[in-house]
């Protein structure tokens, strides 16, 4: 009788799944993770189309990205509390079902406020999905195979952002942008059905734990005001606007009080005490800042391709796609051998690769061919598994099993918040640097400039009127300014990647001897 499944070992623990059951669970959890991560990037290449359809600017169209990331970030710290209160299986399945519902509502939106609202709620309900997906895999895999489980999970996290631009571009060009969200419906329902059928009798232990209402309110106000300031600062002339000043001050005050409150509350919504664990602190900071730079590249690149180079959404997605070629090959090897590899060295190599590819991209311009534009992304794919897998293993290495969901939720919160902030800051910096370069380049368009006289003569000899010459010149100046601004951002992101290398070496071995990978 002791060999029958499910046979509870102790409160909330069951023997690992085996065979087909384990394979089906892996597929179901992978589908849910894929769906949630996909929705972060699938909209990126479609921002110009969505903005045009709903009558707003491309900069305002990025709200569809940042609103989702912001809401998901706010909910992720609650993962531990929700999982303990309602059970990880119920939370995971409910999250998937609600995600499907609000995905459908996103597709039905007829205005930008409607879409942003639906995306906000979609992000809220999706918040616990990825962290609990990770916890469910670790709980139900045999200890000796948990490294492989993390490899599978990481590969899905890697592949989803790659598929996002490709699927987003194809859907936008061949169907319509609402189908970016409708495709979640069958995927989510299938994942929820399979997960519930396998794990409904293997629920984690539940307990009634008070929710930190004050901390939650401070978190929502602080992060929400910060994101509003970042999203709208450029349009409102930043601190010339009383509204931006007000939201900035409210954000600062709320976040300061949040830290103070969370350090003293018995049941904090953000368990900041986890940062006392050195590896968790180092790993979370490294993965968050690395994701900030990585996500910024993924936001600026496709918009630049479409607004400056005239690429279609499909072509922009294909230009981003090569990053998956090497990533898919390397990820299983890293996952299978993660216990044998030097994790700090691997993460360092990943940041070197990211940094060099960013420097490479900074040297390209609007004359670059498709192959030249996509080549840096091809080689960047080698670093992706060496970025996600080792850093996740490092930050969870000294976390006890009963804190896995809370630690994973907090680290995912920091990472997702970094991605959300990256969207807003990258667009702001790109616009700001474009204005700066436009002003510098325009200084050469004056009557006492020999170069301008020559260029004006060439255009006039082609039959253009003076007005048409000025229009064509302004187009070229805008194009050059946007390209130079994008290159400035690539340099910035490259510096961030390289500067994170010394931080990684502050982590303290061993990295695979406790709860995250199956040891105790």
CA distance, first residue to last residue: 27 Å
Tell me the β content.
under 5%
Radius of gyration, rounded?
A: 24 Å
Helical segment count: 22
Helix content: over 70%
Summarize model confidence as the mean pLDDT.
81
Topology, number of strands: 0
Instruction: Give the helix/strand class.
Output: mainly alpha
Largest sheet, in brief, is:
none
The sequence of SSEs as H and E is HHHHHHHHHHHHHHHHHHHHHH
> Quick one: overall form?
globular
Oligomer: single chain
Spans of 5+ residues with little confidence (pLDDT < 50)? 1-11, 513-520
Summarize the entry for a quick read.
By secondary structure, the chain is mostly helical. The chain is built from 22 helices and no strands.
Description:
Helix 8 (129-140) packs across helix 19. The two termini are 27 Å apart. The chain is mostly helical and 520 residues long. The longest helix has 39 residues, at 404-442. It contains 22 helices and no strands. It is globular.
Secondary-structure blueprint:
Blueprint: H1 19-41, H2 47-54, H3 58-61, H4 63-75, H5 79-86, H6 88-107, H7 112-126, H8 129-140, H9 146-174, H10 179-182, H11 184-199, H12 213-232, H13 242-264, H14 278-307, H15 313-320, H16 323-336, H17 343-362, H18 370-396, H19 404-442, H20 450-461, H21 466-499, H22 501-504
Helix pairs in contact: 1-8, 1-9, 1-11, 4-7, 4-12, 4-19, 5-6, 5-19, 6-7, 6-8, 6-11, 8-9, 8-19, 9-15, 9-16, 9-18, 12-13, 14-15, 14-18, 14-19, 14-21, 16-18, 17-18, 17-21, 19-21
């Amino acid at each position: 009788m002791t060999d029958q499944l499910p046979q509870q070992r102790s409160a909330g623990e069951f023997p690992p799944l085996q065979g087909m059951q384990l394979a089906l669970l892996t597929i179901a959890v992978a589908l849910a993770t894929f769906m949630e991560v996909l929705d972060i990037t699938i909209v990126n290449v479609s921002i110009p189309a969505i903005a045009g359809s709903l009558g707003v600017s491309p900069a305002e169209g990025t709200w569809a990205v940042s609103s989702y990331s912001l809401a998901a970030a706010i909910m992720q710290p609650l993962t531990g509390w929700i999982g303990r209160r309602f059970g990880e299986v119920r939370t995971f399945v409910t999250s998937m079902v609600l995600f499907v519902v609000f995905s459908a509502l996103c597709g039905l939106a007829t205005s930008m406020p409607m879409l942003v609202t639906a995306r906000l709620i979609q992000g809220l309900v999706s918040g616990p999905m990825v962290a609990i997906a990770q916890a469910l895999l670790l709980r139900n895999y045999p200890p000796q195979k948990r490294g492989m489980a993390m490899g599978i999970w990481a590969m899905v996290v890697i592949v989803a952002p790659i598929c996002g631009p490709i699927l987003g571009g194809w859907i936008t060009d061949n169907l319509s942008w609402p189908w970016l969200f409708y495709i979640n419906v069958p995927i989510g329902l299938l994942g929820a059905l399979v997960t519930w059928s396998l794990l409904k009798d293997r629920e984690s232990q539940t307990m009634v734990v008070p929710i930190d209402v004050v901390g939650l309110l401070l978190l929502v106000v602080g992060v929400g005001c910060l994101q509003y300031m970042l999203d709208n600062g450029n349009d409102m002339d930043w601190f010339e606007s009383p509204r931006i000043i007000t939201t900035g001050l409210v954000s600062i005050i709320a976040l300061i009080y949040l830290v103070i409150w969370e350090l003293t509350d018995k049941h904090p919504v953000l368990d900041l005490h986890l940062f006392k664990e050195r590896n968790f602190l180092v790993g979370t900071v490294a993965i968050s800042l690395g994701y900030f730079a990585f996500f910024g590249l993924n936001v600026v690149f496709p918009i630049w391709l479409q607004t400056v180079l005239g690429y279609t959404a499909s072509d922009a997605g294909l230009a981003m796609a090569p990053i998956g070629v090497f990533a898919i090959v390397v990820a299983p090897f890293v996952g299978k051998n993660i216990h044998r590899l030097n994790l700090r060295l691997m993460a360092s190599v990943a940041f070197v690769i990211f940094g060099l590819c960013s420097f490479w991209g900074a040297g390209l311009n609007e004359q670059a061919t498709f192959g030249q534009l996509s080549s840096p992304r091809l080689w960047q794919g080698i670093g992706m598994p060496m970025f996600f897998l080792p850093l996740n293993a490092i930050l969870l290495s000294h976390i006890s099993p009963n804190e896995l969901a809370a630690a994973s939720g907090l680290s995912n919160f920091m990472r997702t918040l970094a991605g959300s902030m990256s969207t807003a800051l990258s667009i702001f910096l790109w616009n700001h640097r474009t204005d700066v370069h436009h002003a510098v380049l325009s200084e050469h368009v004056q009557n006492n400039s020999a170069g301008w006289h020559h260029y004006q003569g060439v255009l006039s000899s082609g039959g253009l009127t003076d007005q048409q010459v000025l229009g064509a010149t302004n187009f070229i100046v805008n194009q050059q300014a946007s390209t130079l601004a994008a290159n400035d951002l690539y340099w910035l992101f490259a510096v961030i990647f390289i500067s994170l290398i010394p931080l990684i070496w502050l982590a303290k071995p061993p990295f695979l001897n406790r709860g995250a990978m199956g040891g105790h």
